[in-house]
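Researcher: We plan to redesign the surface later, but first we want a full-length starting point. Tokens attached.
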């Protein structure tokens, strides 16, 4: 089975289920291919569910946007073609017959994973449609640029001709947008007010995620959906501890967290969390120090609690590409069996840009992927960033504390990440957090928030 080729950056691979191996005639996929494959399967699964549930208006809308060319995998395109033929014929709807016609042997089993994992949620069809469609638009745009580069390399055209050809191709690409140009502000405003009324009338909880750090929540009101938070500090200033504190607090309330770690292994992350809960040294836990004997009951109790948490830690080297994070986030949703992830943490961007020729440009690019991940999934993303040494030039007081407060200019190899972030927070002197950017709310603040070294914990609980 041939797969349409387009740019795939992530080198990591995923092993496919046996039925997929049979239909695709391959055993593995790159993370980017796997993400596309799952989006396509999910779309078709939700399309069938929507039809069975009678969501006729949604199906009509989808068929006007998604075409067989939207699919990268031929097997999915074939199935969707059959759906379009059925729709044009006006025959009675028969999802099972369409699936079995596309793949006579094992077709239903192939889709069972999608339906089992996602349940009866045909209402998500529109969201999945938009994801697939935007991915097609990106491929089409990439094809325009590639064609332009080929013409440029051939030297058959003048610069004026090349510019005119590129302008015409981009104009055609824009005109081909089946979702239309721009957004209906009136409709969006109406939906916003309706959502607010519903939330207030039904006394629903606010749509932000509490960090559990009281002093921080009182300042920023928690993390909003789509927040991209830069959490920065000098080495040893407690930034990873703050990130794991927040993750622990969210998990303790029943939320789901994904932790991308280039800095620590999964075992080390869990050891840090256990230290925060019990006060028992993470070093002792990692090394099996004999002094643990007196703390085993506490550790056993805390371990039992953590075992029931909805937390997934990814610690492999492929995270340095960052491109794989969206697919891994989706994978974590399935493994944790949750409808949404409440927080994603990336620790840290400096490790992802080691060896880059232009570290600022690479930092900007990879930070942008994380920002887009937060925006596309409405999952708050916390990205850890190292500070440069400039802050130390301000000197220290008699207690050894840095005199100068951190500024956004202190971010190491920052590129444009300040502009990308919705919030920028610094850990400082292990006795305060410094807010330097907050897109919605107080933009700057110094937050007194003590760091308890024994438990590597910020603030009160």
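Model: Full-length starting sequence:
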């Amino acid at each position: 089975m041939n797969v349409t080729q387009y740019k795939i950056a992530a080198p990591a691979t995923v092993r496919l289920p046996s039925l997929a191996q049979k239909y695709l005639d391959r055993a593995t996929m790159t993370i980017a291919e796997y993400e596309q494959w799952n989006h396509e399967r999910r779309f078709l699964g939700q399309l069938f569910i929507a039809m069975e549930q009678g969501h006729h208006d949604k199906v009509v809308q989808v068929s006007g946007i998604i075409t067989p060319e939207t699919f990268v995998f031929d097997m999915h395109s074939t199935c969707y073609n059959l759906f379009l033929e059925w729709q044009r014929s006006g025959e009675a709807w028969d999802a099972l017959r369409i699936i079995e016609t596309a793949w006579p042997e094992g077709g239903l089993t192939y889709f069972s994973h999608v339906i089992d994992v996602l349940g009866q949620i045909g209402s998500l069809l529109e969201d999945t449609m938009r994801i697939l469609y935007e991915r097609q638009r990106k491929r089409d745009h990439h094809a325009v640029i590639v064609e332009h580069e080929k013409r440029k390399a051939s030297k058959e055209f003048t610069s004026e001709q090349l510019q005119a050809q590129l302008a015409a191709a981009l104009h055609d690409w824009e005109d081909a947008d089946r979702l239309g140009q721009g957004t209906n502000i009136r409709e969006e405003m109406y939906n916003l007010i309706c959502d607010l009324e519903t939330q207030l009338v039904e006394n629903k909880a606010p749509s932000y995620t509490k960090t559990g750090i009281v002093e921080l929540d009182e300042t920023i009101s928690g993390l909003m959906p789509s927040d991209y938070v830069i959490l920065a500090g000098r080495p040893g200033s407690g930034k990873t501890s703050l990130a794991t504190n927040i993750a622990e607090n969210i998990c303790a309330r029943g939320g789901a967290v994904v932790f991308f770690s280039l800095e620590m292994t999964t075992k080390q992350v869990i050891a840090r969390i256990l230290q925060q809960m019990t006060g028992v040294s993470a070093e002792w836990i990692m090394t099996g120090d004999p002094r643990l004997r007196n703390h085993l009951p506490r550790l056993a109790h805390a371990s039992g609690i953590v075992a029931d948490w909805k937390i997934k830690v990814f610690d492999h080297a492929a995270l340095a590409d960052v491109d794989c994070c969206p697919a891994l986030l989706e994978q974590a949703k399935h493994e944790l069996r949750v409808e949404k992830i409440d927080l994603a943490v990336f620790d840290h961007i400096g490790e992802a840009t080691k060896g880059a020729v232009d570290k600022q440009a690479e930092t900007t690019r990879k930070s942008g992927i994380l920002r887009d991940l937060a925006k596309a999934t409405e999952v708050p993303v916390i990205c850890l960033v190292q500070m440069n040494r400039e802050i130390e030039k301000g000197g220290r007081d008699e207690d050894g504390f840095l005199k100068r407060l951190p500024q956004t200019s202190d971010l190491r190899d920052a590129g444009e990440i300040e502009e990308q972030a919705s919030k920028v927070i610094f850990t400082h002197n292990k006795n305060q957090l410094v807010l330097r950017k907050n897109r919605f709310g107080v933009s700057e603040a110094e937050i007194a928030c003590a760091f308890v070294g024994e438990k590597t914990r910020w603030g009160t609980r």
